[in-house]
Amino acid sequence: DKSVPLETAETSTICSYCSVGCNLKLKTKGELLVKSVPDKESSVDKGLLCVKGRFGFNMGQKGTRITAPLMKKNGEFKEVSWDEALLFVAKKTQSISSRYGSKALAVSVSDRYTNEEIYLAAKFGKQILGTDQVFSFNGFDGGIEDVLGYDASSNTFDELLSTEVILLVGSDIMHDHPIVGLKIKEAAAKGVKLITVNPFASLADEWADQKVCPADSVSFIKEVIKAVVESGRIPSDNSAAGFAPLRESLENIEVSGSAKEIAEAYTKAKRAIIVFDQNRVTADGAKLLADLAVVAGHIGKARSGIIQLKPKANSQGLVDMGVTKGAQEIRTNLDAGLTKGMFIFGEDIGGWDLSTLELLVVQDTHLTETALTADVVLPGVSFAESSGTFTSSERRIQRLNQVIPAISGLTNWEVIIEVANAFGANLAYCCPECIEEAISADIPEYKGIVQGEEKTVFWPVHGSPVLYGEKFHFADGKACLHTVGEGPLFKATTHTDHLENTFVDFLKEKKIV
Ligand code: SF4
Predict the structure, then answer these.
(1) Quick one: fold of 8-64?
(2) Ligand 1 within 6 A of 109 CB?
(3) By Cβ atoms counted within 10 A, which residue in 85, 177, 229, 301 is the most buried?
């Protein structure tokens, strides 16, 4: 009876926008998402949500959703059965593989997909197709992992509240990671010294004790390192390799007054945390920031380390699941005509010439610019239709719960299994938890995630929430200090995607921006 109002139900899940990992409760009426409210018991956000978490919860449902497989016939998409779509994809892929080899195939996966979905997509690419071209368009080309061992934050967000100095580099924090921004604001109000180093003015400058807008060159971080070294700080040979060449590379660097001031505050503090945005700081800049933390001895302790803010809800999980290739290498192969078949799970890319592909398969929620160029489009789902886990920028693994049914009847992980099984893979996972068991067995830092049924757990699951307390993540246990040449400190462009663009359109429509 349509006149009887539906009961409102409520399901706890995780925000799908940025990598802070705020907890939210989605209210539904029937299969309709009606509201997003904060989870007051959340240990991540303490019951706060930014505008995206609060109002962007149903962006994935907006517009015309893809509800069935589509195949391009005579230049137009036609709805087809799963069997027809998958048979076509498998045959065409096998033909490409037999003519050019499996290296002519590539698989990309979104960092908004869950760990379980990314794990399956990577398995599909690496093991079933046999290609090492498994990547994300949002993948990064090196950074702090070259110095420390892990491409991950060493410390947690809450430690910002009780450190002594925060060095915030290349971050528009209230725009990109607002709830961490609020923690930094609270820390500054409590007396934690805040230093911002940005190419632009940002809200955080208003709370800062010192703000620097340096020339866009890694030289500025080198200046700070040099000043730290001149103050007498040097790492022991037991803790770090590569100090001599690093010091040598700093010989001709002239230390500015602002770099000296930063170095003084940073070295005088017993505890200090560097926070930077990986989407805005170059790989060389990130390496130097890691060098700085190691040289000054501000790593491997509670309230002392590096927090690396990644862009999307599961950018950390992407790395953890072994998708570590940056897009540039894949693009070079594509432009050289070496890649002939590509599977894109949930990403929309602009500016890439995909016309040389013989086969493009895209899974997405909408007919994005990329999906429009595909031969086959498979329906994808939004976070509200998904179960599994996301890993935030503080290495916190949290559980998403499916709030509404998948629009096409299949969730993303089920579609990836269908695709893989069309190649004879016989993957038999029956739920996200079953995939977690495989993740737990394959990925040492995730060992035990299934048993740890708590709402939230940091990796390494049975280890300390602070990384590098005993050793760095290299065979010899030492940090590997890097020397970098001249180059920019900040990136010229940052990635946005379909979800973010839809949200911006929504804000414009509501005349909020
Ligand atoms: Fe979502 Fe990030 Fe905002 Fe938290 S800070 S509500 S995770 S967009």
Answers:
(1) N-terminal domain of TfIIb (2.20.25)
(2) no
(3) 177
Atom of ligand 1 nearest to the CA of 17: 8
pLDDT digits (tens, 9 = 90+) for 307-317: 999 999 999 99
Q: How far apart are CA 13 and CA 229, in angstroms?
A: 46
Domain with CATH 3.40.50.740 in the chain: 70-138+320-426
Structure tokens at 106: 């590539």
Residues spanned by CATH 3.40.228.10 within the chain? 145-311+470-480
Residue 41 CA from chain centroid, whole number: 25
Ligand 1 centroid vs 393 CA: distance in angstroms?
A: 12
- State which ligand 1 atom lies nearest to the alpha carbon of 49: 6
d(CA 42, CA 21): 10
If one residue of 15, 314, 396 were mutated to test the ligand 1 pocket, choosing by the most ligand atoms within 8 A of its CB, it would be: 15
Specify which residues 308 forms β-bridges with: 276
CATH topology of domain 145-311+470-480: Dimethylsulfoxide Reductase; domain 2 (3.40.228)
Task: List all residues 6 or more positions away from 73 whose beta carbon is below 8 Å from its beta carbon.
Answer: none
Question: What burial class does residue 391 get, using C-beta atoms within 10 Å of its C-beta: 0-12 exposed, 13-18 middle, 19+ buried?
Answer: buried
DSSP string for residues in 333-380: HHHTT---EEEEES---SS---TT-SEEEEEESS--HHHHT-SEEEE-
- Give the pair of three-digit tokens for residue 362: 């895209």
Regarding an ipTM greater than 0.85, the answer is yes
* Ligand 1 pocket check for 52: Cβ under 6 Å: yes
14 lines ligand 1 (CB under 6 A): no
CATH topology of domain 70-138+320-426: Rossmann fold (3.40.50)
**Which atom in ligand 1 lies closest to the alpha carbon of residue 14?**
7
Burial of 455 (0-12, 13-18, 19+ CB in 10 A): middle
pTM: 0.95
Q: Hey, which of 45, 111, 390 would you mutate to test ligand 1's pocket, going by the most ligand atoms within 8 Å of its Cβ?
A: 45
Q: What is the pLDDT of residues 433-481, one digit of tens each?
A: 999 999 999 999 999 887 555 678 999 988 888 999 999 999 999 999 9
Among protein residues, the one with the nearest Cα to ligand 1's atom 2 is 18
Q: Is the peptide bond before 460 cis (omega within 30 degrees of 0)?
A: yes
Residue in 402, 147, 431 with CA at minimum distance from that of residue 285: 147
